[in-house]
Every structure is written in C-alpha cells, then in structure tokens.
Design a protein that fits this description.
Two copies of one chain form a homodimer. Chain A is built from 16 helices and 17 strands. The first copy, chain A, has 422 residues and is of the alpha/beta class. Chain A folds into three domains: 170 residues, Molybdenum Cofactor Biosythetic Enzyme, Chain A (3-Layer(aba) Sandwich); 75 residues, 2-Layer Sandwich (Alpha-Beta Plaits); 160 residues, Maf protein, CATH 3.90.950. In chain A, strand 6 and strand 7 form a beta hairpin. In chain A, helix 2 packs parallel to helix 7 and helix 11 runs parallel beside helix 16. At the A-B interface, helix 1, helix 2, strand 2, strand 10 and helix 12 of A face helix 1, helix 2, strand 2, strand 10 and helix 12 of B.
Chain lengths: 422, 422
C-alpha cells in the first residue's frame, strides 16, 4: 500500500515554520505499520496544489493533506482539489451546519468569508472539526483516498484521531499499533544504544525498536507491528522484549514507562513522602525549573537557592568560608556543603546541589568548561562527586549537569549506591 | 526561476525526526528572494530517489538535496543520482583526498566503507565537508543544477554557506539579502502585529516583513529584497522602515536588535552596573534559568530563591507571616515583600518576584489559573501588580509569567513607569 502526505502553505516553503504536521502523520502511519512513500510540501497556489494531488491520485492508495482550509483568499486547497478532479465546489450543508453550531457555541459572528469554508468538492464527505472553524473532508479520486485536514496542528490532530484514523483502519484493514512500550535512557549516546540492542528484531519477530534523542536523553520505543491483540501471549511477549532491552541497557534506563526524569523523581518523592530542596550554581535554575514543570510538584518541592555568588553560598547556604577559600566554588566539598545547607534551612528530607562551569568562559586547565560537582544530602547520606563532560555549549552543559543531578537523586531514592553513577 | 528542495532518509518518513534541513534551506532561499516551489521527502530507496530527482531535473532550475551520503548501506543518494542520470559512479580523487586528510586530522581509521563515500557520479564536482566525512557534490542534469549535501544539520549548514550559497549567487545572479533588521516583541499576538503593520510593503517598496512566533514572543524581520548595496540611502531607508515599525508597535518592542528579553535585561544591568536577585514561586526557576542562560550573567546575577512553600517565603525571604495569613501567597503584597526580601538578603540593587497559579490545579474563582503577581524592588522603587492570563497550560503560564517579570524589570531599567506595562 502506498501512502503519501502533502502539506500546503507558503509558511513552510518560506522556512518560516517547521512542518510538524507531516511528521505527526508519518508517525501515525508508522504506528499502523505503514512507511510513508513521500512527503510533498507545496505553496498556496491552485495550480501547484491541483497538479500535485492529481499525480498522487494516480499512484497512491492513501493521501493525507493538511492546510489551506481557512477563510482567507490564500486558502485554496478545496478549490484546487475540485478543479483538478473535475468537480464543482458546492455548498456542503453538513459542513455549514457544523460550522454554524461551532460559531454559535463560541459566540463568534458567522461571516461570508466563513461560508467559503463550507464550499467543498461535490463528492466530498465532511470531517467534523471540534476545535476550530475549518471543516475537513475526504473523497475517493482515481485510485486514492484523500483526507483533507486543517493546518492548525491542534485541529489537525484531533480530526485525525476522531475522523481519519478510524476510517483508515476500516477502509484498509490497518491495525493500530496498540502495543508500544517506551523507555527513557540517560547516560549513553544513541549510537551506543543501537549497538547494545543489536539483534532485537531477530530475537523478537513482529517487533521493532524506535529511537528518539532529545539531549541528553533517548527515548526507546518497543513496537509490536504484527498481527494480534491484547491476549496474554502478546502481553508476555512484550514483557520479555522489555526485559531483554532493559538487561542490555543496564543502569541507563531512567523510566520504564517513557516518563521524563523529573516525573520519575517526582513519583518516587511522592511515593516515599519525601520533600526536596535544591541548591544550584552553574545550572542557574534549570534543575528547579524542570522539577516544578511537573504538575503537583508543590507536594514535595519546598525551596531552591540559586547561589551564583560566593557571598550567597556563604550567607544563604552556610557554606564554610574556609571551604570556598581552600577549594573554590567548583569542588566536591562545596557541593556537599551546599546540599547539606539547603536541606537544613528548608527542613527538607533531601537536598541536591550543582556547582560547576557551564562556559563558554571560566574554565581552567584543572577545571575545564564542562566540569560539575553534584552534591546530595539525605536520610543517613551525604556525598558529592565530580564529573567532566565535553559537550561544548553553555546550554548543553546546563542540561547535562541538570539531568545528572536529578539522576543522582533518582538512584538514591531507588536505594542504589552512588558508585553506580555514570 | 524554479527552486526545489529534496530530503532523503527514512527517519523523516517514519516521523522519527523533523525535517529541519529543508526548513533551513527554504529560509536561505527566502533570504535570496526565492520562494521554493516544492519540498519532497523520500526514503532511502535507489528507485524512489532516482525517480524523484529525474522529474525535478526536467522541471526545476535549482535543486538542493540533503541526506544519504554516509558510509552505510542505506546511504544511496549518489548511486540513485548516477543511475537515474545515466552516469557511472567513479572514484572521485578530490573527494578521496579531502576525506583522507579529514580522517588523518581527527585520528580516525579510514575504512572501505568510507571509500564508498568518495564514489560520485562521473560529472559531479566535489563540495568539501569541513565538519564531517561525507563529501558533497554538485552537477548539472537536464535543465537543473543539483547540489547534494549531507543530512547532518551542522555539516549541511556549513557546506551550504561555504560551497553552495556562493555558487547560487554566482550561477543565478541571486542577491544575498544583506539587509535584515530584527525586532523582538512581547505583549501582543502575531495576528495583531500583522494588523498594526499593514501597509508596510506599499510604504517601503523593495522591503517586506517576516514574522516568527515563539511563545510568548514574536520576532519581526524587516527584509530588504531589492537591488542595492550598503550605500547611505539604503541605510536611511532601513532606519526609516524600522522607525515606522517601532512607532506602530508602541511599547511592545523589547529589543531593537532581535535579542532575547533576558539578553536585553542583561545588557541594561551591565551597562548601569546593577546587580539582580530573584524570588520565584509559580515560575519555579524559569526566570533564573533564562537570566543565567546569558553568558557572563555572573557579572550581575547574585542569587535566586525559589520559594514554593509558605514556610520558605517566611524564613528565607522574610515575608511577613501576617501578609500570608491575610492575603495568601498569590497577592501583590506578598510579591512586593518577596522582591524586597530577596533584594535585601542578597544585597542586590534590584529584586524581582513572581507568585501566582500556573495550574493545572490550584485556581479559585477569585484567583483563577493564569493569575500572577509580579513584584519589583529597586533604587527608590517598590511596587507590585496583579495580572491574569488565559493561555491554559502550566508550561505556557510559566513562560508568560517569566517574560512578564523580565519585561517589568526591563521597563524599570529603561526608566519607564510601571503603568506602561501590559
């Protein structure tokens, strides 16, 4: 089966926006076991769009099109489709009704410009839009099923889920990939993960792996692409596959459910009824920001001190002046006293700290840019360790140091020893 | 002139990655005054790639292709191009030399797999790759100039700048758009900016505007697309255009040079030799994180307290217990005492604070999700104000509150009165 994706609109061809819609649709096809043959992006021109669609009508089985369904003059997808397929644009009463209802609900005025949006090719059937004004539509043309959706990502996504996906499953007998397991990894590059997991597809026929890197993490997906449904044997097969993967990735798996590191840390703190305080230097607030990105983090997060200056490290965190004089701000002892200090002043169960050199300047031969000391203080534990990374940019260093601090905390919360770390 | 962009590789068609290369190349074409006609993404298949390129060879004038030049078996772009254009793949001695030198410099071993990368279509000329192993190449085919670049974004970008762009300017007589002015806006939606700037292109022939939204900011580009070079009259024309734009956007311009709000704040603090301390509640560290994203921020940033709990607000920031009892954490008086407190304990010139409800829970009828109080304490100034936004997600609220706090500070540093704000 040949599937194609088309995105219309000058914004993409001008480089003003990234075509996230096509990516989403390709991912959805992948989850149904289909590799898209081609993505085409064309501008807001009737002839260009018509020409592109006509060729696809003669060579593909399914084509998903996004964009150009809005009320303004440059929205010409329906017109282009009608002209190229030799149909008239007619007022679609179902589309008009849905739109009128939507406008009424939102208290918007219904204008003539909007009426244009209900003008669809004569053979088209409507796809309802619950999140916006532009109706979508689908039709069979030559040898291909076309589905037209709005370009606004939120509208497109919900229309795909509600109106397009069920029809694809129905018309083509595709199987939705209900079985996807996600793991979150930290502490190894994507290429290394690939090497460690070599042989997976031979070992587990009908399954494959997907990788997505988002620095400094990697998401690994275990995907079941074969026949079958939620029966026991498949459940067991997925469990076996996951165990095989986890075993090979050793201690680099930070989430068995694809959650972020900060979510995992949050769950552990909540579960164990612990509270957390954070002392940051080089990470400048990024650790705290991620921790508080998790809804409900106020249940366990109490306080952070971002102490850039030595003065603040002394007066707020009670880091010993002698420690700073003897070792400087970037040192295991300083990190340890920062973690201890923030734990004590906020009366938290756990304190973690970061102090290092994010760059671009400030590095020395002894402590180059990329050096960080992570400190941790908790029930019966006080320790700190130095790490050196070589990722280059300030932003990457901040991200790496932050992930490391959270991972050190996660391992302590899991009851692992610090020697496990990186 | 017809320009097209082709991206090869299964990763894009599987939805595993976003096609940022095509976006970059479209943007570059735009800067040379060319709207790309079509973007095509195809997988790692010889026949697919060859077929796509052959059609483009017969209809376009320029085609930029990325991906498929690596050492592994699934890198087939050169082979596909050779077969479809009826040429042999031959060992290109210049490509081989460049690669050998690169490997030697990096201390890598040169393998037979790498030698494959120097096999190019017979008529191809080499494009050097200074950042990686894969040589690029260019050739004329049918009626079109093709340029083949690696898929790794950093390698592609530098090859484009060094090897492709100069040739495009030369072969097609394109003018690089040397005159681009950027402004950063905060406090209005993109559609509103468009309305306020209507009429620009009639008023300033040869110039146009570009918009890019990155919540909660908008970047406006003033682009000179006509003839001319760096002469006085054009300089004056750009100044006039910028003044016209700034006048219409009133006080929504946060940077006249396209810098981020935190960079502008940093420049002002440095210039006036002021220091800064930050007290955050609902923003959870995001204000501090952005402030410390700016290299050299340790010159002015001293300390932040992220006080999620009321206890931390009292003990660390010395917010009056009675204030918290009478008004709660989200109140102008609390924000004011937080800003004052963090300024005093860190002995900074300026203190700013955020306290509000980022959601998704925690809102009340009186103080719904999206409510924030911003406090500021500086030389001769102490004030706080409440704002309510309606953006929905926790992440968006954190971003909006953060931008607002920095903008309030920026206006004070510029000597504007707080009444100007939003």
């Amino acid at each position: 089966m040949i599937a194609e994706v088309v995105s219309t609109g000058d914004e993409v061809l001008l480089g003003d926006i990234l075509d996230t819609n096509s990516r989403f649709l390709c991912e959805q096809f992948k989850h149904m076991g289909v590799l898209v043959r081609q993505i085409t992006a064309v501008g807001d021109e009737v002839a260009e769009i018509g020409n592109t669609l006509e060729k696809i009508a003669g060579r593909a089985d399914i084509c998903l099109v996004t964009g150009g369904l809005g009320p303004t003059l440059d929205d010409v997808t329906a017109l282009a489709c009608a002209q190229a397929s030799g149909q008239k644009l007619v007022l679609n009463s179902q589309a008009l009704e849905t739109m009128t209802a939507f406008f009424k609900k939102r208290g918007f005025e219904f204008t003539q410009d909007n009426k244009k949006q209900a003008m669809l090719p004569a053979s088209a059937k409507v796809l309802s839009n619950l999140n916006g004004t532009a109706p979508g539509f689908f039709m069979f043309w030559d040898q291909c099923w076309f589905f037209f959706m709005p370009g606004v990502p939120s509208e497109m996504k919900s229309m795909f889920e509600d109106g397009v996906k069920p029809r694809l499953l129905d018309i083509f007998g595709l199987k939705a990939e209900i079985f996807i397991e996600r793991l979150t990894l930290f502490g190894l590059p994507e290429s290394r993960a690939g090497v460690l997991l070599k042989g997976f597809e031979n070992k587990f026929p009908g399954m494959r792996l997907g990788f997505r890197a988002y620095f400094p993490f990697i998401e690994v997906k275990i995907i079941y692409t074969g026949e079958g449904n939620a029966c026991d044997s498949l459940g067991k097969k997925m469990t076996d596959a996951r165990e095989w993967v986890v075993l090979r990735l050793e201690n680099k798996v930070v989430s068995l459910t694809g959650q972020s590191l900060e979510q995992e840390v949050g769950l552990l703190l909540k579960e164990k009824k612990y509270t957390l305080a954070i002392a940051e230097s080089c990470t400048g607030g990024l650790v705290s920001n991620l921790v508080t990105d998790v809804p409900g983090s106020s249940d366990y997060f109490l306080f952070s001190a971002i102490t850039y200056s030595n003065g603040a490290k002394e007066t707020i965190l009670k880091v010993n002046q002698k420690t700073l004089e003897a070792h400087g701000a970037v040192h295991e002892q300083t990190a340890l006293e920062m973690a201890r200090g923030v734990k004590i002043i906020s009366n938290a169960d756990w304190g973690i700290s970061t102090t290092g050199i994010a760059g671009p300047s400030g590095g020395t031969a002894d402590k180059p840019v990329g050096t960080v000391c992570i400190g941790i203080a908790g029930p019966g534990i006080e320790t700190a360790k130095r790490y050196t990374f070589n990722f280059g940019t300030r932003a990457e260093n901040k991200k790496m140091f932050t992930a490391l601090a959270l991972e050190v905390l996660r391992r302590h919360l899991m009851g692992h020893t610090p020697s496990l770390m990186v």
